[in-house]
Amino acid sequence: MSTIQVALDRAMRVEGALGAVLVDYVSRMPLGSLSRRQDLDMNRAAHGCTDVVRAHLSALNQSGCKPQQIEDILVTFVGELHLIRPLTRRTHEGLFLLLVLDRERAHPDLARKELRGIEALL
Q1: Environment class of 11 (CB within 10 Å of its CB; exposed 0-12, middle 13-18, buried 19+)
Q2: How far is CA 99 from the centre of its chain?
Q3: What would the pLDDT profile of 86-113 be if each residue is shown by its tens digit?
Q4: Are 98 and 7 spatial neighbours (Cβ–Cβ below 8 Å)?
Q5: How many Å separate Cα 50 from the centre of its chain?
Q6: pTM for the whole thing?
């Protein structure tokens, strides 16, 4: 089993996880994805979140704010949370993990902690 698959499997064990995808935001290419729901298109979510990551990085650059590291970006919907974790290690520049969570069942702080551990796997 590939490291990406192991990481996605671990992400899907997070309480309330509905889907997970590893994305190259330079090319918009999903490198692997899993979903619990057929109506949740993780490739489409990856493309949309790529725009969020790019816009956030662009806004930070234009404002002159250069934080050492973006830990994560949280996008909230009525029934879902989208937790985006840009991977920060030099070999992973340009990648992010997206974890889609059921808003009623999820614990965002625990999910954030788990994504930090998953990042170390990659």
Answers
A1: buried
A2: 5
A3: 987 655 578 999 999 999 999 999 999 9
A4: no
A5: 10
A6: 0.90
Residue whose token pair is 């879902």: 80
In this structure, what token pair is assigned to residue 95?
Answer: 């990648």
Radius of gyration of the chain (CA): 14
CA dist 44 → 48, 64, 89, 122 (Å): 6, 31, 25, 23
Alpha-carbon distance values, 25 to 38, 57, 107, 109 (Å): 24, 11, 26, 24
Tokens of 18: 């509905």
CA 116 to chain centroid, in Å, comes to: 11
User: Can you spell out the DSSP letters for 60-110?
Assistant: HHHHT---S----EEEE-SSEEEEEEE--SGGGTTEEEEEEEETTT--HHH
Pick the more confident residue, 65 or 72: 72
Domains parsed from the chain with CATH numbers: 3-121 (3.30.450.30)
Residues 15 and 34: their CA atoms lie apart, in Å, by 15
Question: Quick one: which of 31, 76, 23 has its CA closest to 54?
Answer: 23
Measured at the alpha carbon of residue 36, what is the angle toward residues 116 and 117, in degrees to the nearest 5?
10
